[in-house]
Structure formats: C-alpha cells, structure tokens
Amino acid sequence: MDLFSLANRTALITGASSGLGRHFAGVLSRAGADVVIAARRMGRLEELAEEISKAGGRALPVEMDVTSDESVTGAFAEIKEALGRPCDIIINNSGLSREGWFREQSEEDWNTVIDTNLTGVWRVGKHGTNAMIDAGAKGSIVNIASITGHRTQMMTTAYCVSKAGVDHLTRHMAMENARYGIRVNAISPGYYKTEINDEYLDSDAGEAMRKRIAMRRFGEYRELDGTLLLLASDAGSYMTGSTIVVDGGHMLIPL
User: Fold this and answer.
1) Residue 222 burial by CB count (10 A; 0-12/13-18/19+): exposed, middle or buried?
2) From the candidate CATH numbers 2.40.128.270, 3.40.50.920, 3.40.50.720, 3.90.79.20, the one assigned to the domain spanning 2-245
3) Helix, strand or coil, per DSSP, at residue 134
4) Are the beta carbons of 78 and 70 closer than 8 angstroms?
5) Is the separation of the CB atoms in 174 and 183 below 8 Å?
6) What is the pTM of this model?
7) Other CB atoms within 10 A of residue 119 CB
8) Which of 20, 38, 80, 91 is most exposed, with the fewest beta carbons within 10 Å of its own?
9) Distance between CA atoms of residues 7 and 84, nearest Å
10) Residue 16 region, left (φ>0) first, then alpha (ψ -120 to 50), else beta?
C-alpha cells in the first residue's frame, strides 16, 4: 500500500468547501498529504481545516475564485509564502451548472459555466504547472470531468460542453507537461449527490435516471477514492492523458 502513499506531498483541492472537493481533501489527507483547500467560502474551508487537523492532518485554507486570474495568482502566492514549496498534486474540482434549454439559455449563464468549469481548470492548471516547474518539482494534476462530457443530456448544454472541454484539455496538458515530469489525468464521475444536483436526483426524473444506470444506483463518494489515489500517487506513475470513467455502468446505455 506504500505505492498509494502521499506522504511528503502537498495537494491543492479547488472547490473544497463542499461536495466532492470536501471529500477529496479528507481522502488525500488520510493518505498522508498536506492539503491546501481552496474555494470562495472561507468559513466552510476553516471548518474543514479544523476537522482535518483534529484527525491528525494538516490543512491550509486559501480563498480562491477560479474565474479570476487575480484571485488564482494571489492564492498561489499565498501558498508559496505559507509553505515555501509548490503543491505537487492539484485536484481541479471547482464546478457548477446552469440548467435550461439551449435556445433559451442566457449568455451570462453560458459564460459563468464555461469560465468556472473549463477556463478555471485551465487557469489553475497553468499556474500550478508553472509553480512546479519553477521549483523543479514533479507532480500530478487530476481534472474532474464528467460522463456528461462524453454524451449529451437535456437542458445542460453549457455543463456538458465544459466537461467535454476538460476531457480534451487534460490530454493537451498531459502532452505538454510530460517533459517536466508532471502527469495530467482526469476522472469522469457518473452521478453522485452534490449541492449541484441533489434536488434533481431526489425528483421523479432523477429516480427514472437511477433505474437506467446499469448498477441501478447512484455512486457513493468513497467509490471515487481508489481512482483519485491511483492518479495522485506513484501507483499511477506511467499514466498521463487518461480519463477514467467511474459511473456504475451509466455510459453503457443512453443517458
């Protein structure tokens, strides 16, 4: 199991104030990493940092808005000042959705989703890559994509397009970063209850969707842990440019 150890590693998790990001922070901390937890809601981050500390881990809460280059560069400067080293694991997890029919969606909603889910991944990945290169550090970047980036789904055009972009961006980042010893991979989760989708999954439509999943259930957060640790640790040392789908067989049938 030492292969999956993250001892002496530092992991940045964006969107860590809730949902999968919050869960990922705990997983990486328990695997031995010091974690930098980033989001806009500092109150929640401070609560999470306290929980991690009580469990024996070390966490640094940092305010970061992935849609603002100033915020992202400021956060990386704060990390460097506080830790004196770069984050050699980056989990690009920030994301949101704005539902609506393609023909009715406002440009503001479109831009909000694309800027958060896709440009935000590029922005954090870019500055995180440069921080590692400047320090001569090797590392791993894990982008959180989605099965909706591989298939179509009603009323979520911007979200689906943004996640398709994350999938392809992952390959480009991997291609250019390999020479620096920085691996870049992605996870495409199926449906897990988060603040983005919990109301929908609890609805009649969500129940109908559950019945179309091959395993006939939604995923549990812990079922992403193995994939996350594989890609973040030396267990996946020869993997780059890969996207791993973790969806209970959902993509085997029409979404």
Assistant:
1) exposed
2) 3.40.50.720
3) helix
4) no
5) yes
6) 0.96
7) 17
8) 80
9) 17
10) alpha
From CA 9, how far away is CA 139, in angstroms rounded?
A: 9
Pairing of strands 59-63, 89-92: unpaired
Pairing of the two strands 59-63 and 182-189: unpaired
Give domain limits for the chain: 2-245
Q: Is 159 a catalytic residue?
A: yes
Give CA–CA dist 252/215, Å, rounded.
11
Do 36 and 10 touch, CB atoms closer than 8 A? Answer: yes
Which listed residue (159, 192, 200, 221) is catalytic?
Answer: 159
Give the integer Cα–Cα distance in Å for 48 and 68.
23
What are the structure tokens assigned to 82, written together?
């506080």
* Rounded Cα gap, residues 59 and 62, in angstroms: 10
Closest CA to 64 of 22, 96, 28, 36: 36
Residue 172: its H or E element: helix 157-177
Per-residue pLDDT of the chain (255 residues; tens, 9 = 90+): 689 999 999 999 999 999 999 999 999 999 999 999 999 999 999 999 999 999 999 999 999 999 999 999 999 999 999 999 999 999 999 999 999 999 999 999 999 999 999 999 999 999 999 999 999 999 999 999 999 999 998 999 999 999 999 999 999 999 999 999 999 999 999 999 887 788 889 999 899 989 999 999 999 999 999 999 999 999 999 999 999 999 999 999 865
